[in-house]
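Data availability (excerpt). The following record was deposited with the supplementary files.
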Amino acid sequence: MTAIPRGVGDVGYVVRALARHPAFAGAVIATLGVAIGANVAVFAIVNALVFRPFPYPRVDRLVSVFSTPRIAVERLGVSLPDYADWRDRARSFDAIGLGGGRSFVMSGAGPADVVDGARSTASLFRVIGLAPLIGRVFTEDEDRPGGAPVVVLGQTLWERTFAGDPGVLGRVLRLDGRDCMVIGVMPRDFAFPDHAQLWVPMAADPTREDRAARGYSVMARLRPGVTVDAAGAELHRIAAEQARDHPATNGDVDVLATSLAGVRGSRGIVFALSVALGAGGFVLLIACANVANLLLARTASRARELAIRAALGATRWQVARLLLIEGLVLMLPGAALGLLVGQAGRDALIAMVPSGVPTWMRFDTDWRVLVFTLSLSVVAAAATTLSTGVRAARRRGADVLKEWGGGSQVHSARVRSVLVVSQVALTFILLVCAGLMLRTFFNATRLDAGFRPAGLLTLRLPLPAATYPPERRAAFYDTLAAKVASLPGIVGVGVASAMPLADEVRGVEYDAEGEGVAGSTRQLGARSVVSETYFRTLGVPIVAGRAFDRADGAATPEVTIVSQAIAERLRPRGEAVGKRLRFPVAGSEAPWLTVVGVAGDIRSWRIESSALPTI
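Predicted structure:
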């Protein structure tokens, strides 16, 4: 009956005592907060990738499907005609859907805004298996050429732009100059592809689309009992038929099907998470040793108080309980601080991922993160107070008075020495690991990206195709570039369809005239449309030939500049200028592009990856 009131009284006493020593309390709380926060940040990533359930039903049956050339690049996007063949011929899938990410200029809901969205087939929603929050998704009839112009919004866009108003259904928005009626809102977890926030029907005729234009993403849902390997074998057979029927565009193209659920078990992810968790554990151990040392020093300074408590009849459990309560009281604000530090660290880790995170990963704090934080805090509190609490619990009466009052501080000094040695050893291990990581970082910063990033500012400004046909779009960007170039402090302006190290680069096929390509006339590379000032603005050298100039235009023969990686493929080496390349187009004769220059290689995908051959 008296244990609870006494325990509560101890809590009040500990709080008042710590309030009289704010420096000590602040040091312990900050140390625990930073160490717990480092572990919480890593665990938030682990939780999102490993423990948190996928937001999609029966995720074990979801697969991603890619076109995979047998040369140069591992994965490509998918063309609409190839997708239509898989849809019509494959029997392994309950449903298969396609989507292509793009930006839309949206108006009709306040000032015009640029929104990441997608064109998708109606079947994509069945594949993912998530129901709309309100309204409906578009139908197969709306997904045909000439179908009703409708749009489905994402939850984030709905809440940000319309404050979550259910009355948005039936409202007309203008997307790229076309009026579209809002028919539904999808939940936040539905963001396929490319973190899209609105979806319009594909509404395209596959027979009229270019089979070589592989810019779409495909998801499929397996039939019950069908394995990923079986579906892949069937797709390989269909790919072989496509290669036979369409050798110009599919002769060197295969298909790859990968399980979405299988991402969690990849060796690279498991290794990276294990290293991160191990580093976090070392940090926590060092922090615990540091806090335990502080508590031991504080306990030694309270020798007279503890000795008097023991002399007045305090049991060994009561003395130990007081010290344990002190550790737990310090733990609570340390846990709260750790949660805040962990959330900031989590955001920093996510920001360091160069290509973004998968659409199905959610990093918000859930019960697993809270339980992990609380458990880690309790373990840290117990570990830091164990040496003082257990030692106090082993003493009684006059022994405690004699030890704490008479100067047997040797044992405490030995314990503190052990803790210091442990701290130094763990810190040395961490310093070695940190040194290796810093060396990797410095090596990465010394990598030649192929351009000068210092002083570069970027701006994305997509234009609606309905309002800006190619000629008008080119004139708009020319005018914009000229006006920006006239601003004070601007030394150069370039325009490009994709920014290095910022935009996803998809491989495209190209042909070289004659016997110019080693091994085969069909090769793969990246494609970018740039202005004549692009290379000069980015500081990319022209190593052979010339750069684009104002004379290059629609009225002159079509020309191109290739990267050094492309030039090295052409024979004889060093004579790429004057060669002709073209991009295959199904059903028509593609124009030849004459190489007028060779530019230095640019690491357009990732700084640690080799430069992609670029045209």
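Summary of structural features: The longest helix spans residues 316-351.
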